[in-house]
Design goal:
The relative contact order is 0.10. It contains nine helices and no strands. The chain is mainly α. Helix 1 (3-25) crosses helix 2 and helix 4 runs antiparallel to helix 5.
C-alpha cells in the first residue's frame, strides 16, 4: 500500500470501531490489529487515537454540513427547502451510518466546532435567515425566527436519530411526515401565541 492508501485504510477501520465501541472503548491496539499493521504505523499517520478520531469527525461534519447547506442554498419554495433538508439528513444517515453514530456520540476529544450539536447550530443559522425573511413577508415577528429555526432543525435531527436505529419506514416517507408536521405548523402560525392554561 502507498502511504495514502494506508492512511485511508486506517480511517475506514477506525471509523467502524469508533462507531461500534465509542472513542473511549476503542484502542490504538485494536485499530492496528484490525488494519493488520503495527501500532507505530497508526502513530506515524495520525499521532495517536485522538488525531485519527479528529480526522474522522472533521470529514463527517464536512459531509453532513455540505449536504444540508446544499439543500438549503437553492432558490425554492420554503416547503421544498424543508423537504430537501430532511432528505439530505436522512440520506447522509443512510449512506454513512457509522459516521452519523460517531457525530451524535459525545466525545472528550471532539472539537467545539466539530460536534453534532454545533453542526446543527450552523444549519439552524441558515434556516434562521430563511425563516426571518418569510416571517417578515407574512407579518410575523422576525425576532422569534431563531427560536423557530432551532425547533425546526431539532425536530429533523431527533427524527433522524430515531430513524438511524429503526430504518423504517423508508426515508421518503419519514421526510414527508417531517415536512407535514413542520410545514403545516409553520403555515398556521399565530402572530401572538399565548398559553391557554395556567402558567407556573
Amino acid at each position: 500500500m502507498t502511504a495514502r492508501q494506508r492512511r485511508e485504510q486506517l480511517i475506514v477501520v477506525a471509523k467502524a470501531l469508533f462507531a461500534e465501541k465509542g472513542f473511549e472503548g476503542t484502542s490504538v491496539e485494536e485499530i492496528a490489529a484490525r488494519a493488520d499493521v503495527s501500532k507505530p504505523v497508526v502513530y506515524e499517520h495520525f499521532g495517536g487515537k485522538e488525531g485519527l478520531y479528529a480526522v474522522i469527525v472533521d470529514r463527517e461534519v464536512e459531509a453532513l454540513l455540505g449536504a444540508l447547506s446544499g439543500a438549503l442554498a437553492s432558490r425554492a419554495h420554503p416547503k421544498q427547502l424543508v423537504e430537501r433538508a430532511a432528505l439530505a439528513l436522512l440520506g447522509y444517515i443512510e449512506e454513512s451510518p457509522d459516521g452519523f453514530r460517531i457525530l451524535v456520540r459525545d466525545s472528550p476529544v471532539a472539537q467545539a466546532g466539530g460536534t453534532f450539536s454545533s453542526l446543527l447550530g450552523d444549519v439552524a443559522a441558515q434556516v434562521e435567515v430563511l425563516l426571518g425573511d418569510q416571517f417578515s413577508r407574512r407579518g410575523l415577528n422576525p425576532l422569534v425566527a431563531p427560536f423557530y429555526a432551532q425547533m425546526l432543525v431539532g425536530q429533523v435531527a431527533l427524527a433522524g436519530q430515531h430513524w438511524a436505529e429503526v430504518r423504517e419506514p423508508p426515508k421518503n416517507v419519514i421526510a414527508a411526515h417531517l415536512v407535514n408536521l413542520a410545514w403545516n405548523g409553520l403555515s398556521a402560525l399565530e402572530r401572538s401565541p399565548e398559553m391557554t392554561g395556567p402558567t407556573a
